[in-house]
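Customer escalation, tier 2.

The customer says the design service returned an amino acid string that "doesn't look like it belongs to this structure." They asked us to rerun it and document both sides in this ticket. The original structure tokens are below, unchanged.
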């Protein structure tokens, strides 16, 4: 079973991987098509801020269900 913090970490690590693919200094021999695809995927990918926001929302919802 995947824990919520493991899922969050996986999403954030994936974002870092995609960012590295976009950066020619971090990944010098990646084809342009792969860089373009990574950039396209990042356009609507949840950011670190989005992940923190969702975590806060779930904490709020957990609190409501215990009331």
């Amino acid at each position: 079973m995947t824990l919520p913090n493991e899922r969050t970490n996986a999403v954030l690590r994936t974002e870092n991987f995609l960012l590295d693919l976009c950066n020619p200094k971090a990944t010098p021999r990646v084809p342009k098509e792969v860089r373009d695809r990574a950039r396209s995927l990042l356009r609507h990918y949840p950011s670190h801020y989005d992940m923190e926001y969702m975590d806060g929302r779930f904490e709020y919802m957990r609190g409501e269900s215990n009331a």
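Tier 2 assessment: The sequence is consistent with the input. Helices lie at 4-22, 32-42, 48-65. The first helix runs from residue 4 to 22. Sent an explanation to the customer and offered a walkthrough call.
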